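Action item from last week, closing it out:
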Amino acid sequence: MNRISNQSHKEGSSEFRRFRELTPILDEINIAIDLHSISTGNDIIGIVDRKYLDRSLGFLDVETILVDDIGNTGALTGYILRQGKESYGLECGNHTD
């Protein structure tokens, strides 16, 4: 469901329907970790919104942290951040694993 929370053109897709089914649950949680895999390599990469960088350094034990304005994205992490809650991403494993 990557990038689904702000792409209305996908309303007929199964991803969008699943997102709508999960929205009540997502609205109830206080913090989220969005797990992804990567296409090359096996490094674990943290993905953090600028607002929570300092906080994430206390618990994300990874070599690489990507910092961006994730709240503006359509990822589930972005959706949670736009609700005023904490959310982090982890790229952790290869697609082929």
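Closing note: The chain has a mean pLDDT of 85.
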